[in-house]
């Protein structure tokens, strides 16, 4: 499986990684969810080279995760906003944050835990089935069936 061909794989994990599967992309998305929209602000917060940042923003835009909107004409300047497809990645980031806080927390106790916007209380997100409301674990799923030649 070649990295550049992941978007053509039948596996949804491989196809998803073709969009968000590198460290800079996930950090760009984290910043988007924190309200960062402009190129210079991304670069300053991330310490990323202009070339790499431009490449990641371009890929997220072409994948429909971000949309670029002009906010200034002379010189032309753009900001990047999450699309509906991009906003749908929020649970991925929340799950990653919870996993990291559980399995690889900062030793000094200063991990930025997820907090409720209104109360400030710590949140403990869980993945649940929308139909039944049951929590989902690795044991909740059937193994995918191999495709049969006549399907």
Write the layout of secondary structure elements.
Blueprint: H1 12-20, H2 23-33, H3 39-46, H4 50-62, E1 66-72, E2 77-82, H5 84-87, H6 90-103
Region (Disordered): 108-151
Protein name: Helix-turn-helix transcriptional regulator
Domain HTH hxlR-type: 11-108
Distance between the termini: 23 Å
Q: Give the percentage of residues in beta strands.
A: 5-15%
CATH topology of the largest domain: Arc Repressor Mutant, subunit A
Q: Strands of the biggest beta sheet: in what spatial order?
A: 1-2
Q: What's the CATH architecture name of the largest domain?
A: Orthogonal Bundle
Low-confidence stretches: none
Order of helices and strands: HHHHEEHH
Largest sheet: 2 strands, antiparallel
**What is the H level of CATH, i.e. the homologous superfamily of the largest domain?**
Winged helix-like DNA-binding domain superfamily/Winged helix DNA-binding domain
Q: How confident overall, as mean pLDDT?
A: 87
How many helical elements? 6
Helix content: 25-40%
**Tally of distinct domains:** 2
The dominant shape is: globular
Strand segment tally: 2
What structural category arises from helix and sheet content?
mainly alpha
Q: Rg from C-alpha positions?
A: 19 Å
What is the CATH level 1 assignment of the largest domain? Mainly Alpha
């Amino acid at each position: 499986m070649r990295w550049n061909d992941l978007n053509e794989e039948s596996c949804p994990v491989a196809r998803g990684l073709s969009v968000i599967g590198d460290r800079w992309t996930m950090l760009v998305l984290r910043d988007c969810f924190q309200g960062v929209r402009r190129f210079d602000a991304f670069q300053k917060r991330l310490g990323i080279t202009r070339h790499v940042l431009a490449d990641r923003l371009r890929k997220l835009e072409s994948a429909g995760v971000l949309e670029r909107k002009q906010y200034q004409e002379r010189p032309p300047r753009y900001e990047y906003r999450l699309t509906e497809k991009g906003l749908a990645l929020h649970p991925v980031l929340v799950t990653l944050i919870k996993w990291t806080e559980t399995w690889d927390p900062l030793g000094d106790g200063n991990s930025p835990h997820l907090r409720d916007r209104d109360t400030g209380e710590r949140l403990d997100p869980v993945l649940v089935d929308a139909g039944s409301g049951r929590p989902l674990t690795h044991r909740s799923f059937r193994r995918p069936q191999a495709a049969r030649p006549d399907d």
